[in-house]
Write a structure and sequence with these properties.
Layout lengths: L7 E2 L1 H11 L1 E8 L2 E8 L1 E2 L5 E7 L12 E14 L16 E16 L2 H16 L13 H9 L1 E16 L6 H12 L3 H13 L1
Antiparallel strand pairs: 1-8, 2-3, 2-6, 4-5, 5-8, 6-7, 7-8
Helix pairs in contact: 4-5
């Protein structure tokens, strides 16, 4: 990922992007080319491991060797930015459209898991991760045990040993203050995705 210094974020913020995104695209190289899968993830407390699972029938899961390299891409905010929101264009018309976004990339080495106990622990952890703020909370053990066993047989566990993480927050920091404020104000009154970017701009100010 190309990250100019102005848009770079530290590792702690990059991990926050991963957690905020909740799910990401895992990309790996296969003999027939690139393969990707979009999955929700759980980040271990030590930030050294990411876990997930995917359908056994998914081609991404076929032929994975322990230690194969994987690139995980996470997007926490994304919106188009029009030059019409730049007041400075009236005196300096050399402007073009762009895109504001907050993203992170994690590089790691993957290991697949078939053990029922591992997969059960992973889906419990993942479910708890996304249910913790809900009321009532749904838990894996709320479903019949026989049904859960059937579902576990249909998935493969994914464990990624983290090698590196890189984060980027491109949020109009390279524009004059009047343009930054105008972009933020206009996005704040837009779509859900645009409002999300505006909120990120508030945090990044």
């Amino acid at each position: 990922m190309y990250v100019p210094a102005k848009f770079r974020v530290g590792d702690d913020e990059a991990w926050r992007v991963v957690r905020d995104a909740g799910a990401g695209v895992l990309v790996r190289v296969t003999p027939s080319g690139l393969a990707s899968v979009f999955v929700p993830v759980v980040v271990d407390d030590d930030q050294r491991t990411i876990t997930s699972h995917a359908a056994r029938a998914n081609h991404w899961c076929q032929g994975v060797e322990p230690g194969d390299e994987v690139l995980a891409v996470f997007l926490a905010a994304s919106a188009y930015v029009t030059p019409s929101n730049y007041p400075s264009r009236l005196t300096h018309p050399e402007v073009v459209p762009t895109w504001n976004y907050v993203a992170a990339e994690v590089r790691g080495r993957v290991r697949m898991h078939e053990e029922p106990e591992w997969k059960l622990a992973q889906v419990r952890s993942q479910t708890d991760r996304f249910e913790h703020s809900r009321e009532p909370q749904w838990r894996v053990d709320d479903a019949p045990a026989k049904y859960i066993d059937q579902q576990l047989k249909a998935i493969i566990g994914i464990e990624i040993e983290v090698i590196s993480i890189e984060g980027k927050a491109k949020l109009s920091q390279n524009r004059p203050a009047e343009d930054f404020e105008s972009v933020r104000e206009n996005l704040a009154s837009g779509s859900l995705a645009e409002r999300n970017v505006a909120q990120r701009m508030n945090l990044n100010e």
